[in-house]
Known about the structure:
globular, DNA-binding, alpha+beta, 6 helices, six-stranded mixed sheet
Amino acid sequence: MKIISWNVNSVRARITNILDYIKQSNPDILFLQEIKTQDISFPHEDFKNIGYNSYVFGQKSYNGVAIISKQELDKINNSFIKDDLKQSRIITAELKLKKKKIELINIYVPNGNPVDTEKYEYKKDWLKKFISSIKKRIQKNSNILIAGDFNIIPEEIDVYDFKRYENDALGRLEIRKKYRELINLGFKDVYRFKNKTKQEYTFWDYFAGSWQKNYGMRIDHFLLSNSLIENIKTININKKPRSKEKPSDHTPIELEII
DNA sequence: ATGGCTGAGCTACTCAGA
């Protein structure tokens, strides 16, 4: 079972790249973030034509998340938290894997910049609500997979120049502590669990030749509840899509579970 | 490097991203 997460920075602007990538990587389930469109203008047909169902929580212009899946998924839910700004940032579903029921949670965490503004407060509040909901969920179902664009640099190793980001909304200790708080509820950051010292990134800015200079950061993550650790087969950051024409600024992170 | 580049909505320019 291959599950992939990718912030595509507009599903419609990226549709050719996305379809090519699906054909090459053959995921069972694909989490998309920043689809930047409403449900009504989501390219459902393009995914249907290559054998995938689409479950979409979109909005006009900004944000938006979707789950693309070969098999039909149950219990699709777009109200995992109460979002004060009513932004489309979480979609959840249930996956049956052998005898386990796994709650799939696809997230697009607010960016939060600039710090010391209402945007930063929104990110903090959003994370607080999210952690609180996860705490409740994990008491009912211990099998949880959270993946998406967290907009959090977990540790110094996860960015090309930490000093530049230590007071940024992605790297501030206050925000990184939220990430640790979430993990301490009973999760593993699968990439870091499998790669203790490796320095790889999932995002590179469009400007100033960031990609060419490898000025990147690791802000897209897979968290698996401790109950599912034994199911991990591989975790991989696939840099190829970032090198294509008209790329997203993020690249996919790929998880295989058995 | 609080910049520069990209996309949406719309057709001139602002907002948002990280």
